[in-house]
Structures are given as C-alpha cells and as structure tokens.
Amino acid sequence: MQIAVIGAGIAGLACARRLVDGGHEVVVFERSKTPGGRAATRRTEIGGFDHGAQYLTARDASFVDQVDAWSRDGVVEPWPVEAHSLQAMAGEPPVREPSTGRTLRWVGSPGMSAIGEKMAEGLDVRYQSPIVRIDPVDGARGTPPRWSLQRREVDSDVVAVTEGLFDAVVVAVPAESAVNLLGAEATIARPAGQAHLEPCWALLVGFAEPIAADLAKVGDAAFVNGDRLAWIAHESSKPERRAGERWTVHAQSAWSVEHLDDDPEDIKAKLLRAFHDATGTNEQPIYAAVHRWRYALARTSLSCDFLWDGERRIGACGDWCRGFRVEDAWLSGVALAAAISA
C-alpha cells in the first residue's frame, strides 16, 4: 500500500520504518525542519541543549532490543546520573531529598536529536510540510476510500498543495492536533479527544564559568517540587557532550498553563530567577533562551497501543495512546504498523 504518515516524531518514524520494512510505500510529512519531535536538541554557539525529552528508559523487551541496537550504533549512551529531588518552596532555600533509586537512563549521542535522525535514515521524509487537512476520496462501492492530503506552504496561510492519493493514513501528532486533522472521522477522533497533553516552558541557560560550588544542592539532575520548576539538568554531565556550563530547566505544567501566552522575555526572567533560587547561585548567564512546548507531557492517555479504523484505513499513534515516555511513543508506532500490515 501507499501510506502517508503525518508527523516525524518517535511514533511516526517507528511506524514508518516498520511499514517500509513490511514492503509498503511510505511518505512522512513533517512540519518542522528536523525529525524526532520532542526528542530534540538545540545547537547554539556554546553547545547543545536537550530542551525537550531529557532521556529515555527501556522496560518492554522489544524496546530494550531497539535501544541495544542504537547503543551498538553509537546513537545512544547511558547517562549514569542519579536524579535527586528538590523541595523548593517560595521564599525558602531548596531542600535536597534522598534519591528514590538509580534508573538506567539513556540519552542520544551527541544529543537527543540523534535518535530521530537515525530513525529517519532511508525514509522519504518531507520536511517543512505541514498537513492541514485530510480528505477521503471514495472509490468503488465496498472498497476503502483513498486519502488526499492538503499541505500548507511554509510561512504562508495559503493551502496551495494537494498530496495523494494514499491507501492509508497514519496521524502521528499530539492528540489535540490529531483531533483537528481527523475531523469527521469519529471512530478515531472521538477517542483521541479524550487524551490531553500539557504544555511546558523550557529555559536554556549557559554560564562562562562552572557553578560547581552550588551543585551539591542539585547534583547533575533533579526533579523539583516547586511553584515554577519541575526539572533541572546539567547538560555537560551527559556523555559525548561539549564541555561547558549549560543547564536545561523545565517549568511545572500548571505554571506553564498559567503563563502559556506570556511574553518569552518575561518567561525567561521568571525562570532564571527560579533557577537561581533552586541552585543557590547568583551568577549571570552568558546565554539564556526559552522554548515553549505547547504539547509536552501526556497527562491523560488512552491506555491503548493505537487507534485504527481498518475499514477506512486511517489511524493514529503517539505516546498519548499508551503513556508519556519515549518508549510509549515508539511502541505505539510499531504496534500500529503491525496492525496495518496485518
């Protein structure tokens, strides 16, 4: 079959790879310039920041095998870090709590974006190709429809290009975006509407000199239970990273919702102040930037592997189907590919 996959995140790429391996002709449409979705790395003049997914873990046997293969290829490396817990209350110094145990965490090498780049190798991925509409084109009575995709030109509101026809469509984007694309396809759109992804503001901050004197409060990574911050990570503590004092900070989901549409400069100032409070440092950065992930964490998932309408040959996959981990996204995409091929 000729199959369109919308979204080159982990789920979409995993699905596309299995479909191609199964003999199908697959085209992947991705709105951004790079693959991997939230498994992303921002490259700057002072080094890289993993500003989306921080790491991955592997529990399912098939994903363990995949991570092992990536490890042999040098795509991922273990990150031997003990993530601490910080209780950071407003107006009070942070209190470091004991770690709940060591988890084997893997990171992309030399950045999280290496995972998506590896997965996209050999696939027909059309970057900067945002799909804004999916239309069924009915065939003969008793046969499934084929599908026409409408693509918006980059940096334009004009829908100028029609892609298709495809025998099947996979929608591998955040649940809220999937609902908009699926439209009248109620069999898929209705359950997809029950999933919910929360936003996250990320702060990327770098310093001219190490702030090692203050690291005892944080370590190289910490979950923060505070009003603003949820996570702090020392980028140069990850393997195969450029030396330098770089930190990635994630805000709490509730705080990100409250400030979703605030001016980025205001967000940067507020998160930098919270970072100073949590780490105990007053050093001023030589680099600071923020990134807004509108759809970051799948807080409400469907507890299923994927959505698929076999009669109309349209489906959806993503971490929001199963849970919230990178592993969930990969497993969702692989499972949907198996269902389509079957």
Short note summarizing the structure:
With 342 residues, this protein is α/β, with parallel strands linked by helices. It contains nine helices and 20 strands.
Q: Decide which structural class fits the backbone.
A: alpha/beta
Quaternary status of these chains?
single chain
Relative helix content: 25-40%
| CATH fold category name of the domain at 1-33 and 127-195 and 301-342 | FAD/NAD(P)-binding domain
Biggest β-sheet description:
7 strands, mixed
- Assign the CATH architecture of the domain at 1-33 and 127-195 and 301-342: 3-Layer(bba) Sandwich
Query: For the terminal residues, how far apart are their CA atoms?
Result: 12 Å
Strand content: 25-35%
Low-confidence parts: 89-101
